[in-house]
Amino acid sequence: MHIGLIGGTGAGLFSPLGDSGCVVEQVQIQTAFAIDPVVITEWQAYGHRVLFIPRHGPNAQTPPHKVNYRAHIAALKQAGVEQIIALNAVGGITAAGGAPGTLTIPDQYIDYTYGREHTFYDGQQMQHCADLGLSESLQHVECNRPLDAALRSALLQAAVTAGIGVSAAGTCAVMQGPRLETAAEINKLERDGCDVVGMTLAPEAGLAAEAGLPYACIAGVVNCAAGRAPIDGEGQQQSIHEQLDEWVAACMTCLLYTSDAADEEDSGDL
After folding, report:
1. What is the per-residue pLDDT for 193?
2. C-alpha span between 222 and 255 (Å, rounded)
3. Number of neighbouring beta carbons within 10 Å of residue 208
4. How far apart are CA 77 and CA 103, in angstroms?
5. pTM for this entry
6. Residue 157: which H helix or E strand, with range?
7. Closest to 87 measured CA to CA, from 129, 50, 43
8. For residues 72 and 100, what is the distance between their CA atoms, to the nearest angstrom?
9. Residues 25-31: contacts with CB within 8 Å, 24+ apart?
10. Tens digit of pLDDT per residue, the chain (270 long)?
């Protein structure tokens, strides 16, 4: 099986896992949605071919609202990927979303972003849909369950295999970025029913749905959302950037070993 892996914050800490002595290659996939090709790193893991894209570019300098999500999903589709596992850094809002240093496997999201190219069906490039093997006629893709249930189940089982505790569900608020949220915005997101907050799950998940690719997210909680950090004895809260320094590496370790365990599962379960 060909498995797509898209990494975000902390992707610079990433190193390919899987078969001992596996050959790591880089390929460039030209798509209709970008001038430059998408660079994909490939390797073999437990009989699966893993294709990895760093969401924010090789130097992690592309802000979330400028990521070319269409090019990324199109490149993975063209490369023959059969499902996508996304690695996302998020802030924790509720106890259900998890504490910093833990993982959650969201089952829903609310998209608060704007101005992003969020669909292949933009009314202008319908031939590009055909080139991806999609219908040229306008499609209204169902997103009742936007994160694939079978793939989520496989990830939850992989976490058990890896001995890593995860939150088994939750709603992710997807904000525009790159600035972080205000405490009042986080309060609103909680009232809206959100458990964690990030900046990249949309439109990525929706584009994967349009492309017919099962998609699920492993979210690493790398900080308490704005206004939610514990108050110390001096009445101070740890800043979000201080929390990121403390928790990104820990979450990336859990993320990567969970995704590695998912690769190790029998292909019939993925």
Report:
1. 98
2. 11
3. 28
4. 27
5. 0.89
6. helix 149-162
7. 50
8. 28
9. 27/79, 29/75, 29/78, 29/79, 31/70, 31/71, 31/74, 31/75, 31/78
10. 899 999 876 665 555 655 555 678 999 999 999 999 999 999 988 888 999 999 998 888 999 999 999 999 999 999 999 999 999 999 999 999 999 999 999 999 999 999 999 999 887 777 888 888 888 888 899 999 999 999 999 999 989 888 888 999 999 999 999 999 999 999 999 999 999 999 999 999 999 999 999 999 999 999 999 999 888 777 788 899 888 887 887 777 776 666 666 766 644 444
Pairing of strands 103-104, 166-167: parallel
Phi, psi at residue 29, to the nearest 5°?
Answer: -115, 120
Whether 101 contacts 247, CB under 8 Å: yes
Say how far apart CA 156 and CA 47 lie, in whole Å: 20
Report how far residue 237's alpha carbon sits from residue 22's, in angstroms, rounded to the nearest whole number.
Answer: 44
Decide: 198 and 175 in contact? Cβ < 8 Å. yes
C-beta atoms surrounding 232 within 10 Å? 9
Under the phi-then-psi rule, with left for phi > 0, alpha for psi from -120 to 50, and beta for the rest, what region is 46?
A: left
For the record, the structure tokens of 226 come out as: 């704005």
User: Which residues are paired to 45 by β-bridges?
Assistant: 48
In angstroms, the CA 220 to CA 255 distance is 7
Both ends of the chain: CA-CA distance in Å?
9
Q: How many Å apart are CA 243 and CA 224, to the nearest integer?
A: 8
The structure tokens listed for 51 are: 């294709």
Closest of 83, 80, 38 to residue 209, by C-alpha: 83
CA nearest neighbour of 191 among 173, 204, 174 = 173
Q: Which amino acid is at 153?
A: S
> For residue 196, what are the contacts with CB-CB under 8 A and spacing of at least 6?
90, 91, 92, 93, 94, 97, 98, 104, 106, 170, 171, 172, 173, 219, 221, 225
